[in-house]
Amino acid sequence: MSIDTTATNTGAATGANTGWPAPDPSRLTAGPTTVPLAELRLAMIDVETSGLRPDRDRLLQIGLVRLTAAGVETDRWQTLLKAPWLPLRGRRIHGLSRRALRGAPRFDSVMPELVAALDGHILCAHNIDFDWPFLRRALRRDGYEAPDALRLCTLRLSRSLDPERTRSHRLPDVCQRYGVPLERAHDAGADAIATASVLAPLLAEAGIVDVDGLRPHLEGTTTTWPSIAGEPRKPSWVRALSLPDGSGPIDARWTGLADPLVPPGPPQP
């Protein structure tokens, strides 16, 4: 797992919303509204898997970037996951092997932290129809029934801008089109970061400036994820790291990018 030790941790590992109010789902899915994009929180997710079938294959890596729909990031999270006792297909794509996954946590040990991080956010991915079934099935295997999460697909959004299909809408090509670097294609963390970076230019090209414009591209009904009983568990492999300036330690999976984001308006009490 790659770790950026040049940033500071904002405490986002617990999934706390750091004073930034979650959007009311009813404002996102019904009735005219002009809620600006800066008030919408998204969780950009990417997964790498042992195959293509959610009912049979397993998650091997999860990358997550939390940001506003205006493109302002708040934090990043990623983890490898313990390899299942199943054939690991797709190695030529993602490069993950049993040796690379040795010592990684089981999904159930990171699940409480992940669920807490998704709460209050619109789930977003480049081809959400791949990532969402895998995530939902993994949660169900460990006894958590995921809500009908409000979801946004950047692949479909990109295709909507090209009705004649004259351009490629693969993530590397979308990144190239908008001048966004993609450091390691098919690494879940790198793909989530790149997808987060193309969101704002995609929305700008589509002329979407508020929820009214975004609503036709959303599916699902809620941004509320019921919490899992007990405190999120820290897997034993998470280690404290010190920052170069000696101000550490930080959580090895969470990388805070900014101070807690508060939308424009009166000072928070």
Layout of helices and strands:
Layout: H1 25-29, E1 41-49, E2 59-68, E3 73-80, H2 91-94, H3 107-118, E4 122-125, H4 128-141, E5 151-153, H5 154-160, H6 171-177, H7 188-206, H8 211-214, E6 218-219, E7 254-256
Helix pairs in contact: 5-7
Short structural description:
With 269 residues, this protein is α/β, with parallel strands linked by helices.
Can you describe what's shown?
The chain is of the alpha/beta class. Helix content is 27%, strand content 14%. It has eight helices and seven strands, in the order αβββααβαβααααββ. The chain has helices at residues 25-29, 91-94, 107-118, 128-141, 154-160, 171-177, 188-206, 211-214; strands spanning 41-49, 59-68, 73-80, 122-125, 151-153, 218-219, 254-256. The chain has a seven-stranded mixed beta sheet with strand order 6-5-4-1-2-3-7. Helix 5 runs parallel beside helix 7. The longest helix has 19 residues, at 188-206. It is globular, with a radius of gyration of 18 Å.
